[in-house]
Amino acid sequence: MSFSTMLASMGMGMLRSCLIFFLTLLFALPLGMGVMFLRRSGNPVIRNITKIYIAIMRGTPLMLQLLMWYFGPYYLFGMSIRGYRLPAIIIGFSVNYSAYFAEIYRGGIESIDHGQYEAAEILGYTKAQTFFKIILPQVIKVILPSVTNEVITLVKDTSLAFTLAYNEMFSLAKQIAASQTSFTPFIIAGVFYFIANYVVAFVMERIEKALDYYH
């Protein structure tokens, strides 16, 4: 296999990795917000169940969770898992990362002075208006560095999709390296991941600067 063919093949794998990355963010970011609200619920049952959920998601390997999401429907309900590989990957990643994002959101919200809620109430704001117009913009600024770290981790974690034999970039690198007895595919994969993380870090840094109210 020529170098250009190898590069093209791994480029297709990178597109699949990007698909996992973007779909995970699409679902995990809003889902994490919902989990955060449940975690802060005034109902102790809901709050404690959510705490257990977060503990399980953060306390068990993502690889194990992917396997459970993929094989679980078959072993538990006898359902066919044909064509279910990518949906299982997206569900597994989204549910896992939502737990991390939920805790990041919670930390950001709890860092906001409670006096701002009281001031908004005096000014006649509803709870929804207070959250979206006053609290959320400040929370985004506070949590952005932590979100950036999780997003960069997600770029690298997409390689775990190989667990379910999904041909993203890392899986293809392993296959090509084995068939060609060459270390080059791993070097190419490393360069791809580095570039992807550099782009993510650059974009997030630009967003941080845009939200820097003092400059």
Structure description:
By secondary structure, the protein is an all-alpha fold. The protein has a single domain (3-210), classed as MetI-like fold (Orthogonal Bundle), CATH 1.10.3720.10. The protein has 8 helices and no strands. The protein has helices spanning 3-39, 44-59, 62-77, 85-110, 115-122, 127-157, 169-180, 184-210.
As a percent range, the share of helical residues equals over 70%
Q: Just name the CATH architecture.
A: Orthogonal Bundle
Q: Biggest β-sheet, characterized?
A: none
Q: Alpha-carbon distance between the termini?
A: 53 Å
Give a brief description.
By secondary structure, this protein is an all-alpha fold. The protein has helices at residues 3-39, 44-59, 62-77, 85-110, 115-122, 127-157, 169-180, 184-210.
Keywords:
215 residues; MetI-like fold; flat
Topology of helices and strands:
Blueprint: H1 3-39, H2 44-59, H3 62-77, H4 85-110, H5 115-122, H6 127-157, H7 169-180, H8 184-210
Helix pairs in contact: 1-4, 1-7, 1-8, 2-4, 3-4, 4-6, 5-6, 6-8, 7-8
